[in-house]
């Protein structure tokens, strides 16, 4: 949730909260009193159906996370990164192991590795692989 608030199936999502509602998850009711700005991703065709749903994979459901109540965890970050880098894990896919998380890095951090040793070609290839993964449904 980027701004505002929305209620889905009686669950309130306010600014900065997170939810992962998998395909097939019934969205029976939704309302917003003063409007909301959401970042919504769909990993396939979207269809609207009335009546009883076809079911969903409950292992994939993350109904609600409030990152403001979580501590930043530096222990989950590669120790070669500079001090102060930390994450807040939001969801781990039960099939692929891919994790969605918030990332925190202090301003003006100094890398502990030689940036010049990473060629721009390798960097571009890395970004392309990440974009390809997103196109196939990765987070």
Topology (elements, then pairings):
Blueprint: E1 3-8, E2 11-14, E3 18-20, E4 30-31, E5 36-37, E6 62-65, E7 86-92, E8 99-104, H1 120-135
Antiparallel strand pairs: 1-2, 1-4, 1-5, 3-6, 7-8
Based on the model shown, name its key terms.
8 strands; single chain; two-stranded antiparallel ribbon; 1 helix; alpha+beta; 24% strand; 12% helix; 139 residues
Question: Alpha-carbon distance between the termini?
Answer: 16 Å
* Helix proportion: 10-25%
- Provide the residue-averaged pLDDT: 78
The radius of gyration is: 18 Å
Which strand-content bin applies to the residues? 15-25%
Total DSSP E strands: 8
Number of helical stretches of at least 4 residues:
1
Low-confidence stretches: 114-136
Q: Major sheet: size, sense and barrel closure? A: 4 strands, antiparallel
Helix-and-strand structural type:
alpha+beta
Shape: globular
H/E series, N to C?
A: EEEEEEEEH
Structural features, described:
The protein is an alpha+beta fold and 139 residues long. It has a domain at 1-66. 12% of the residues lie in helices and 24% in strands. The protein has 1 helix and 8 strands, in the order E-E-E-E-E-E-E-E-H. The strands form 3 sheets. Strands 1, 2, 4 and 5 form a 4-stranded antiparallel β-sheet that branches. Strands 3-6 form a two-stranded antiparallel sheet. The longest helix has 16 residues, at 120-135. The chain is globular, with a radius of gyration of 18 Å. Mean pLDDT is 78; it is low at 114-136.
